[in-house]
Give the backbone structure.
Amino acid sequence: MINPLEPALRKQARFNLPNRFLALQKLITKKVLTIILTAIVSFGVRAQQNTGFRQGSLVSPQISEGNSVTFRLKAPLAQSVSIKGDWEADGGKGTMTKDASGVWSFTVASLPSDMYLYTFTVDSVQLLDPVNPFVCRDVGNLFSVLITNNGKGDYYSVKEVPHGSVARTWYPSTAFKTSRRMTVYTPPGYEESKTRYPVLYLLHGSGGDEEAWVTLGAVPRILDNLIAERKVEPMIVVMPNGNPSKQAAPGETKENLAYRPVMSNTLPGYKEGSYELSFKEIVDFVDTHYRTQAMKSKRAVAGLSMGGFHSLFVSANHPDLFDYVGLFSPGINFKTVNMNLPAYNDLENKLAAQMKKGIKLYWMGIGKTDMLYEPLQEYKKILDKIHFPYKYVESSRGHIWSNWRSYLLEFTPLLFKK
């Protein structure tokens, strides 16, 4: 028997065929796109660098109660492993011991609150701590980093306080006929305000550059924390590159990766005076491009080692620029310097002129075992001879960042007092 509805159903089927085909086509297209996208994402993940990194269960360094610190390294095939750090106990040296699982360990009973650098030596090869991702460069060497708290280390750590900003700024140098780089810290609220600020010019040592005080010296954290505690005046901190023959830190000059870190005394222009005599161009650039209080009473210059040498002669040759001077373990062994050069000659008269112009603080600090201890004692005799007023601080230890960060903590609260 013929279904009376069959002709109508056939007509409807013929009418819906294109719709069914389109639906099928969309379904196939969607599946194909899904497969392609999955493949692309999968390839991208596999192609991404360092996806094999795993945290693992090993902890190093492990800081326990009382600032006891344990270091660990998994090296089952190693024959000997030692550690070298810049803490004072046992000269920072330790021999690590291996357990049954091939993990070497060493514990320092108690580290005073500070920021520390360390490395491992595995069968005579120096290594970073592979499970500690925090490193910094000092001259051409990389070191693993740790901070112990409940003291000075608290100022080297990030806290829940308002934060300043750090910028790498290029300036045109007429003296050196090229562009040069400085690092500039501006205090919390600088961008939102119209306030003008005093300026500390903070100079690095031999082998350093415009990055040294930021990384090794922890300047942004120190200033953020001191400002938050109202222990220092909010200030701009300018950290220029002090190597006359180099524009900037290694890897940041027109030489690119061809310029590797070296000690400054191997570079042209070392202690020949051009940097000190031309320093005013840095001050002028900062006063033009930042909201500064452009007056002598609102400027300070300080530095460590070579930077202390620079600070001495920058301030002596420009007595109208700075009311505050800080010499941190200054590299002022004058027997190794040509004191007949224009920047360095006639020092006593320059100091007398600087004293006559007026100076609010001349601060000097050094460790008792520092290699530059005796030259600084000789320099004090020159100051005493002409009755030049100064504040002198002695600390323990030697020529080391632990002292220079500590000196910055002592020096900055004395600046820009009304």
